[in-house]
Design goal:
- Helix content is about 20%, strand content about 20%.
- The protein has helices at about 30-35, 70-85; strands spanning about 15, 25, 35, 45-50, 55-60, 65.
- It has two helices and six strands; from the N terminus they run E-E-H-E-E-E-E-H.
- The chain starts with 14 loop residues before the first strand and ends in a 28-residue tail after the last helix.
Length: about 110
Protein backbone atom coordinates (compact mmCIF):
# COMPACT_ATOMS: atom_id res chain seq x y z
CA UNK A 1 0.00 0.00 0.00
CA UNK A 2 1.76 3.08 -1.27
CA UNK A 3 -0.19 5.71 0.67
CA UNK A 4 -0.37 3.98 4.06
CA UNK A 5 1.39 6.35 6.48
CA UNK A 6 -0.63 6.48 9.75
CA UNK A 7 2.18 8.34 11.59
CA UNK A 8 2.50 11.12 9.00
CA UNK A 9 6.27 10.76 8.63
CA UNK A 10 6.26 10.58 4.84
CA UNK A 11 3.44 13.01 3.94
CA UNK A 12 3.35 15.33 6.97
CA UNK A 13 -0.18 14.28 7.87
CA UNK A 14 -1.43 10.78 8.71
CA UNK A 15 -2.24 9.35 5.28
CA UNK A 16 -4.38 6.42 4.25
CA UNK A 17 -5.24 4.80 0.94
CA UNK A 18 -8.79 4.98 -0.37
CA UNK A 19 -11.25 3.13 1.95
CA UNK A 20 -8.63 2.43 4.64
CA UNK A 21 -9.20 5.41 6.97
CA UNK A 22 -10.30 4.78 10.58
CA UNK A 23 -14.02 5.12 11.28
CA UNK A 24 -13.65 8.15 13.57
CA UNK A 25 -12.16 10.26 10.73
CA UNK A 26 -14.61 11.56 8.14
CA UNK A 27 -14.46 13.71 5.00
CA UNK A 28 -16.45 16.94 4.70
CA UNK A 29 -19.04 15.13 2.60
CA UNK A 30 -19.41 12.37 5.18
CA UNK A 31 -19.79 14.98 7.93
CA UNK A 32 -22.42 16.81 5.86
CA UNK A 33 -24.39 13.56 5.45
CA UNK A 34 -24.57 13.41 9.27
CA UNK A 35 -25.66 17.07 9.49
CA UNK A 36 -22.24 18.07 10.87
CA UNK A 37 -19.41 20.43 9.88
CA UNK A 38 -15.70 20.48 10.74
CA UNK A 39 -16.24 23.47 13.03
CA UNK A 40 -12.88 25.17 12.44
CA UNK A 41 -10.68 22.17 13.16
CA UNK A 42 -7.65 21.49 11.00
CA UNK A 43 -7.57 18.25 9.00
CA UNK A 44 -6.48 15.35 11.20
CA UNK A 45 -5.48 13.08 8.30
CA UNK A 46 -5.85 12.65 4.56
CA UNK A 47 -6.72 10.07 1.96
CA UNK A 48 -4.61 9.90 -1.18
CA UNK A 49 -5.56 8.05 -4.35
CA UNK A 50 -4.97 8.18 -8.11
CA UNK A 51 -1.20 8.06 -7.70
CA UNK A 52 -1.31 10.87 -5.17
CA UNK A 53 -3.06 13.34 -7.48
CA UNK A 54 -6.32 13.23 -5.50
CA UNK A 55 -6.63 14.10 -1.83
CA UNK A 56 -9.50 14.17 0.64
CA UNK A 57 -8.94 15.66 4.06
CA UNK A 58 -10.29 13.85 7.10
CA UNK A 59 -11.70 15.49 10.22
CA UNK A 60 -12.25 14.10 13.70
CA UNK A 61 -15.84 13.13 14.37
CA UNK A 62 -15.65 13.96 18.08
CA UNK A 63 -14.70 17.61 17.29
CA UNK A 64 -17.35 18.11 14.59
CA UNK A 65 -20.17 20.55 15.28
CA UNK A 66 -23.79 20.64 14.09
CA UNK A 67 -24.45 22.35 10.79
CA UNK A 68 -25.70 25.88 11.07
CA UNK A 69 -29.15 26.60 9.65
CA UNK A 70 -30.10 29.78 7.87
CA UNK A 71 -32.30 32.25 9.71
CA UNK A 72 -35.69 33.22 8.32
CA UNK A 73 -34.24 36.54 7.10
CA UNK A 74 -31.39 34.76 5.31
CA UNK A 75 -33.80 32.34 3.63
CA UNK A 76 -35.98 35.27 2.54
CA UNK A 77 -32.93 37.03 1.05
CA UNK A 78 -31.93 33.87 -0.83
CA UNK A 79 -35.46 33.46 -2.20
CA UNK A 80 -35.49 37.09 -3.32
CA UNK A 81 -32.12 36.72 -5.08
CA UNK A 82 -33.16 33.51 -6.86
CA UNK A 83 -36.44 35.10 -7.99
CA UNK A 84 -34.46 38.04 -9.39
CA UNK A 85 -32.38 35.59 -11.45
CA UNK A 86 -35.60 34.22 -12.97
CA UNK A 87 -37.20 37.61 -13.69
CA UNK A 88 -36.75 38.87 -17.26
CA UNK A 89 -35.71 42.54 -17.40
CA UNK A 90 -37.39 42.87 -20.81
CA UNK A 91 -40.92 41.66 -20.12
CA UNK A 92 -40.83 41.52 -16.31
CA UNK A 93 -42.18 37.97 -16.15
CA UNK A 94 -40.88 35.45 -13.66
CA UNK A 95 -39.80 32.41 -15.69
CA UNK A 96 -39.51 28.79 -14.47
CA UNK A 97 -35.80 28.87 -15.42
CA UNK A 98 -32.86 31.14 -14.67
CA UNK A 99 -32.26 33.86 -17.25
CA UNK A 100 -28.95 33.28 -19.02
CA UNK A 101 -26.52 36.07 -18.30
CA UNK A 102 -25.12 35.75 -21.81
CA UNK A 103 -28.57 36.54 -23.25
CA UNK A 104 -29.68 39.07 -20.66
CA UNK A 105 -33.36 38.29 -21.20
CA UNK A 106 -35.76 35.36 -21.44
CA UNK A 107 -36.02 33.12 -24.50
CA UNK A 108 -39.29 34.78 -25.58
CA UNK A 109 -37.80 38.30 -25.55
CA UNK A 110 -34.60 37.08 -27.18
CA UNK A 111 -36.43 35.79 -30.23
CA UNK A 112 -36.52 32.15 -29.26
CA UNK A 113 -32.77 31.53 -29.72
CA UNK A 114 -31.70 29.02 -27.10
Amino acid sequence: MVFYDPTGERYGLPTYPYKFAPGDLLTRRQLRARQLRPGGQEPAAQILWRRGKRVAYLFRLDLAQPKRTATAAQRAAIDKALTARRTCPGCGQVKPYYIRRSLGECFDCNGGDH
